[in-house]
Amino acid sequence: MADVKRRPSVVIIGGGFGGLYAARVLKRAPVDVTVVDRTNHHLFQPLLYQVATATLAPTEITAPIRWLLRKQRNTRVLLAEVTAIDVERRAIVCDDGMSISHDYLLVASGSRHSYFGHTEWERIAPGLKSIDDAIVMRQRLLLAFERAEKATSDAERKRLLTFVVIGGGPTGVELAGMLPLIARRTLPGEFRNIDTNEARVILLEGGPRVLPSFSENLSRHAKRELEELGVDVRLNSTVTNVERGAVSMGPERIESESIFWAAGNESSPLGRLLGAPLDRAGRVKVEADLSVPGHQDIFVAGDLAEMFTAGKRVPGVAPAAMQSGAHAARNILRVIDGRGTTPFRYRNKGDLATIGRHRAIAQLPALEVWGKPAWWLWLFVHIMYLAGFRNRLSVLIEWAYSYFTDQRGARLVSARGS
Amino acid sequence: MADVKRRPSVVIIGGGFGGLYAARVLKRAPVDVTVVDRTNHHLFQPLLYQVATATLAPTEITAPIRWLLRKQRNTRVLLAEVTAIDVERRAIVCDDGMSISHDYLLVASGSRHSYFGHTEWERIAPGLKSIDDAIVMRQRLLLAFERAEKATSDAERKRLLTFVVIGGGPTGVELAGMLPLIARRTLPGEFRNIDTNEARVILLEGGPRVLPSFSENLSRHAKRELEELGVDVRLNSTVTNVERGAVSMGPERIESESIFWAAGNESSPLGRLLGAPLDRAGRVKVEADLSVPGHQDIFVAGDLAEMFTAGKRVPGVAPAAMQSGAHAARNILRVIDGRGTTPFRYRNKGDLATIGRHRAIAQLPALEVWGKPAWWLWLFVHIMYLAGFRNRLSVLIEWAYSYFTDQRGARLVSARGS
To answer: How many CB pairs under 8 A join A and B?
Structure first.
């Protein structure tokens, strides 16, 4: 009996880019893999803003995790929310009471948007991380125009047609760039009491430039392209209060009923359950090989890990999550085989941010691109990376439809807000 | 001043088939039209069961009402829920306090599913009328398999994999026919702890046959086709209790965690606000010209109206709503012109019900069709009627995808259930 060797078990928390790419690395390995996620789907997060702005349907950027991993016979997928991690007993506990033991654990539960302590702002200014968030944002956005059509005073109408996006990172820029297109190209002609062209879009960035992770040159291009689209870009504008109907920056106050939050992230609360050191944003300070200090059986990848490459912090972007997830899985296999682990090194193939139709910026290893070429590059890269052939085709069709007609395919407001 | 003639105003409550077809009739008429709906979208209700069963996305069977009517310059669309109708003052009042006065009113607010007084059953056995309902049903259906995968006892697993559909009308038959396809063709291979082929689907019908609005011959065909798909069809089975985890028919009890309601409809509560006589299901007993008795300025169409043609009650189906909505609008124009109204006559071009892949029944004026030909006919008719070119294309692609791969394109479970 003692000779029967049980295959090591690997539990992966999170079916995002980190968890999915880790699971794929383990496909043919002699291990039993369990992927746990609190939703049934992998989310293609870089296109989430397109759901929030009614261009794509929620089902077009999601795919069931178990469908994506259906051919990996050594992998099971469970829908559950992890509530406790018992580092010593090597088990996780889920909200439904289920306990799953493991030999190796990879935590890749990502991040949420953060309100810097002002959790009461979330109700007023929704953020954008999950598919539910995107549907809430879409509902708010479409309802603003519906309510403006019924408004009884100019002040109310103006407040409803003022859209404020807080945060000048990629999500904020993408949202702010899409809004003028909707107001000026999609909706005109459908309303009788308002002129949707009068909608104002204001982007508030606390720092001195938008998209600060790009070069100053590209930031400047991005700002100019936003302004060409009609976005009022305000730099060095730190938000001091968010209330129903208004945003304040010190003494200045902007009246708006449509405030969207894209200003900050904090890591998933699961980092705290590991008992490991965390940085200020809640990221786990992992070893170079992505393991948790003192635990060669626990790894962290993606947005939840504070990772460095050549002394620079690895950004919280999709390629970093994919690479670190896959690397952590490879290191787990090395530990199993009794080989030494290897340090994670983020290979930055380039950063992309889209601003609006025909407008984007791209920072490649030896090249900076902006405008139309960058936009086509962005399009190509995102279609290539979309998980699963079916979604890719469907997204292509929606994009072609939007591109040629300026219509949006997903303008759904329901009574319950779903 | 007295010579300036104000154009008569027509208010239409409801943007379903009745309201939409009425608005279209008024397109070039010298009237001002207002369409009020509590959602922003027209819903193609005949395909709602395909959203509930994860085949189509919610956005594929909905289109913004204002987009559909954007070219009618005399028509405005308002998103609001009507809470009161002042018949004497000729005004409706909405939930946001807005009051809209009118010269003519058409109420086409449709119907809801009815639990025959047992409103507490709704929480356990959701029905299917709105897009929100369909999303709730999809969530329940997909979660049943997810929970079964985690079940710790055979009894729990069996309860989760037993799907009960209550009601053998078109919606119940469509749902019951789709469930075996999902369990036996879409999901196998994706689960590790359960065999989805073991899922049981039970259809409970209180009367002696399914689809009682069709001929006995077609009912028999429908029952046989359901049974060939693996559905356990139980006739003369009146449900006496629905509780969490079980359905009872007198002394018999079926344990199930997935109970879906398709047993009955009751009319929108707006009928009561008119102060007109109602039938037992809450339908307004309209005159032959669809006006409310004693009010030549108020009309009712669609599911909310009790209508007769050649002594037979007009069924609550989409073509009847379209025809009666258009007819009511034409009568409003006749009243405005000082001409006499004409009685509504339902022209039944045939009834269709689909049962599952390659299975349907069709009752045409001089012909009964079943099996494959009826299914292709069903497909053709539904594609023809789908509102808006874009949705039609998108639905076609989804259907082709499902047809050839047995996959479903919309298997989304979110944390919030949207």
So the answer is: 150
